[in-house]
C-alpha cells in the first residue's frame, strides 16, 4: 500500500519492520511499516488484510495491490479462460468480470517487469 493511501485512510499506527523488498524493476526499498487487519470492502463482502506500506508514487488506477494472501483469505477461484474471478465468504459468492476490469491496461508489459525463473 502506498504511504499516501495509508495516510488518506487514517489507519492506525504502522508496525515497524526490518523487511527489505525487491520491486519488479529490481529496485530495493525499505517499507515504512506494516498495517495489520485492515478492512477491505469488495462488493458485498468485507475482508481483513495486512498491507506492507511503502512510500512510492502509485498508479491512480491501482491504488492498492491485493496479492496471493488476500486471494486465499477471499477464497478466490480464478477462471483465466472465462476471464472472471469468484470471491467467496461462507456460502455467498461474488463474481468479478475481469474482461471489463482490465480493458484500460496495456497489453505490452514493460521489459523490466518480466521475471525469469531458472530451473
Helix content: 10-25%
Q: In terms of quaternary structure, what is this?
A: single chain
How far is it from the N-terminal to the C-terminal residue, by CA? Answer: 32 Å
Domain count: the total is 1
**Total strand count, please?**
7
Secondary-structure element string: HEEEEHEEEH
Strand content: 25-35%
| Strands in their spatial order, largest beta sheet | 5-6-7
Query: Mind summarizing the main beta sheet?
Result: 3 strands, antiparallel
Q: Could you tell me the mean pLDDT?
A: 82
| Shape designation | globular
Secondary-structure-derived class: alpha+beta
Summed up:
The chain is of the alpha+beta class and 119 residues long. It has helices at 3-9, 68-73, 98-101, and strands at 21-22, 28-29, 33-42, 45-53, 77-79, 84-89, 92-97. The protein is globular, with a radius of gyration of 16 Å.
Task: Describe the protein.
With about 120 residues, the chain is α+β, with helices and mostly antiparallel strands. It is about 15% helix and about 30% strand. The protein has one domain. It has 3 helices and 7 strands, in the order αββββαβββα.
Fold blueprint:
Elements: H1 3-9, E1 21-22, E2 28-29, E3 33-42, E4 45-53, H2 68-73, E5 77-79, E6 84-89, E7 92-97, H3 98-101
Antiparallel strand pairs: 1-2, 3-4, 5-6, 6-7
Jot down its keywords:
14% helix, 119 residues, alpha+beta, Reverse transcriptase domain-containing protein, 7 strands, RNA-directed DNA polymerase, three-stranded antiparallel sheet, nucleotidyltransferase, 3 helices
